[in-house]
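hiii so um. not sure if this is the right channel but i have a protein structure encoded as tokens and i wanna go backwards to a sequence. like what aa goes where. can anyone help
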């Protein structure tokens, strides 16, 4: 028997086959323990930080508005054009939904211009960094025009829902479709700002005080256009999409077509 085994090793082909078989057996033995722990590793990998989930997030630009002072909405145009437009250009493929919100009331929130967007935590951090690094922010703070810059997002699970920021009194279908409508409105408003100043871009490269004056004039031109053409260009054609069905005006208690 010993002679037979010894004789087998005299053949290089048989010897190499035995060696390779041994290596293969050792490899299989070393892999088996790892395979047995694979389900646990996979489960750990599936744990995701809630901050990374896609949800509604908000940047609030809060302006100083002392008692008795006039309200100046032209600040919003400066913010939208100089700070938020570059953000949208850089992240147009990362934010499926976004919009602007403008408000002013004598309450705790006061005068604010908000950028509301749907994103994950990674994109949100990049947006925050880009806004914080924009020199216009520090210039507005130095002038005491900008009182605070706030970044917020909700920790509620419902914040991931498309309808989360819509009015809860609306029917669910309207809540879910409205974010797409208001994003289009916001984009149209921003595009109008860009087109109004297309021939005067150099004005936006001036000193911050001159820029504020420039955007006041720009705001006047845009709201004048809204006043003159808004009913037909916007409201009438929106009404047409819904078959010219009259809209109930709650304040007057009447139905009206545009």
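sure thing!! here u go:
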């Amino acid at each position: 028997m010993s002679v037979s085994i010894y004789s087998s090793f005299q053949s290089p082909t048989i010897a190499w086959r035995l060696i390779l078989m041994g290596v293969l057996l050792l490899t299989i033995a070393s892999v088996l323990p790892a395979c047995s722990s694979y389900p646990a590793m996979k489960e750990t990998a599936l744990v995701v930080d809630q901050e990374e989930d896609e949800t509604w997030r908000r940047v609030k630009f809060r302006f100083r508005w002392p008692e008795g002072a006039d309200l100046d909405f032209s600040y919003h145009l400066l913010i939208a054009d100089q700070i938020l437009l570059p953000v949208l250009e850089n992240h147009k493929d990362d934010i499926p939904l976004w919009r602007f919100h403008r408000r002013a009331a004598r309450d705790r929130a006061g005068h604010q211009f908000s950028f509301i967007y749907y994103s994950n935590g990674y994109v949100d951090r990049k947006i925050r960094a880009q806004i914080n690094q924009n020199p216009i922010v520090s210039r507005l703070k130095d002038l005491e025009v900008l009182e605070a810059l706030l970044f917020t997002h909700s920790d509620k699970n419902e914040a991931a829902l498309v309808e989360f920021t819509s009015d809860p009194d609306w029917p669910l279908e309207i809540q879910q479709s409205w974010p797409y409508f208001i994003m289009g409105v916001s984009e149209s408003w921003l595009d109008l700002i860009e087109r109004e100043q297309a021939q005067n871009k150099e004005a936006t490269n001036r000193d911050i005080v001159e820029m504020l004056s420039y955007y006041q004039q720009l705001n006047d031109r845009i709201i004048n256009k809204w006043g003159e053409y808004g009913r037909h260009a916007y409201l009438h054609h929106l009404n047409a999409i819904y078959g010219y069905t009259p809209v109930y005006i709650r304040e007057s208690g009447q139905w009206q077509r545009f």
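oh and Residues 179 and 198 are 28 Å apart (CA to CA).
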